[in-house]
Amino acid sequence: SIYRPKNRFKKTMSLSMFRSVAILFCLFIHLIAMGQSSEIGITLGTSTYKGDLKTTMFTTKYNHLAGGVLFRHSNSNHWSYKVALHAGRISAADSTSKSDIQKYRNLSFRSNWQELNLQTEFNFFKFQTANPTSTYTPFLALGLTLFHFNPQALLNDEWVDLQPLATEGQGTSQFGDRKKYKRLQVALAFGGGFKFRLSRRFGLVVESGVRRTFTDYLDDVSTTYADKKILAATYGTDAALLSDRSVNQGNNQNMLRDRGNRNDKDWYVFTGVQLTYTISKKYNDVCKPFRIKFK
Fold first, then answer.
1. What are 211-240's pLDDT values in tens digits?
2. What's the pLDDT tens digit per position in 239-285?
3. Positive or negative CA dihedral for 208, 272, 48, 110?
């Protein structure tokens, strides 16, 4: 049977915290939107990931639809900041890998993710959508992301949450020092792209953003195999089944063998096209990208 913890307090708190942050995001936009050089927009694109089940980042395999909304404020023609809410999905399967080791391991997962992204953007050319002299510019972005994820695996035609099952023995008598990972995490965000001015009110932005996380569990794979007997006794038989799906798993023969690479943190990527609308036709016509004052 599927292990379902009686106390959902931690999961409820994580989701409630994320919802609270989303509400604050909306209030922030409402307060700032009356200012000049501000715009709102929508984003549509794709997301993918790099981790133990998918070791390369920029491939077309396992791309999923993603999207969101954003608010951008320009302090000058060269500097702006963006606050955005995004959501998407990542997934991968060992069965499609070219690696014989991964094919033998035979794990797979999917995870929906949601994020609050805050970043600063630097335009190489002077650019604001409301500025009639602007046309286009390449830009770089750097910031932080608060995100929520929830890896799942398919078992008997049902998608099962993996974190509560502690598939690597977290919290069992075998690995008392291993703690269950948090599904609400912080990541470094960086990327870049191109901005285009379509009219006095509308702009188009093509952006690819990379998220360097501080967790190795986007795919629920990181350390070593646990004792399946202890897993079954602690979290149920499905925890044991989902912990080891190798081709010739035998009778606990993989216990303590490497299941993943704990030294390599997971990444995910969100690439999309933004359509933006300028709230005000006013703009800050400042052209110097850097101002240094000497005392």
1. 999 999 999 999 999 999 999 999 999 999
2. 999 999 998 777 788 999 999 999 999 999 999 999 999 987 766 66
3. positive
